[in-house]
Amino acid sequence: MIIMIVIALISVAPILWMVAGSFRPYQELFKYTSLNIHLLIPVEWTGRNFHNVIFNARNPFLRYIWNTLFVASIVTALVLIINSMAAFAFAKLKFRFKTVAFALFMSAMIIPGEVTLVPNYLLMHDLGWLNSYKALIVPSMLSVFGIFMLRQFFAEVPNEMMEAARIDGASLPRTFVSIVLPAAVPALITLGLMTFLGNWDSYLWPLIVINDQKMQMIQVGISTFSSNEGTDWSKVLAANTLSTVPILLLFLFLQRYYIQGITMSGIKG
């Protein structure tokens, strides 16, 4: 128990320092580095860092938040719809070469994202999608890991329940929506959280395909507070604190389903 508490404190300490630093004036930010109360509690409190970040004419931070929220929400919804249908097909339907197709899908998990970065960029260029939301949304709609995780859940749904629904006259889509999906709510929420978080923290891909500052994502927006002239760490900490709030709220309300989905996912089968 004591070990777990110590690990938890070590994990939380950087976050607490970040939040405390966002309320410090720049002159005080690195003044207290030894282990004392002022390491985490500012001597002089100020909210000007947040004001400078939110009302920055050069870097429209609220616009970055809206762009990221829009893209992450759309991608999450599409991932849940598309990957749940693919996982259901692999788990419950019978068709030729199903095993081979699933093995090919799983082999894609070992390919690093950096390998497909240039081909994806060239594809976006040929389609004329650079500097648009389509370049951020479409390549992220498919998640091989999501298909694998949902397949493990769907495989646990008794076939007898599906047969009973079929005898009662339910079509295959109706059976999928009414019986299979409700049984996999924890897995769907877990996949949704992971997808949303991945897109919320996305940096490299938006940096490559988006040039219009008004369409940029939040992590790239935070990096604009650092330049060759130096880094305004007060603004960086304030911006990171603001960007962390939505994720913390999501985990606060959905943590029960997230933990349940993690513990029940890939270990089955």
From TrEMBL:
Entry-linked Pfam families: BPD_transp_1 (PF00528)
Membrane topology recorded in Swiss-Prot or TrEMBL: Multi-pass membrane protein
Domain annotation ABC transmembrane type-1: ranges: 65-254
Highest taxon in the source lineage: Bacteria
Keyword Transport in annotation: yes
Cellular compartments annotated: Cell membrane
Keywords: Cell membrane, Membrane, Transmembrane, Transmembrane helix, Transport
Regions that span the bilayer: 64-90, 102-123, 135-154, 175-197, 236-254
InterPro entries, A to Z: MetI-like, MetI-like_sf
CDD domains: TM_PBP2 (cd06261)
Family, per entry: Belongs to the binding-protein-dependent transport system permease family.
Protein name stated in the entry: ABC transporter permease subunit
Organism: Paenibacillus phytorum
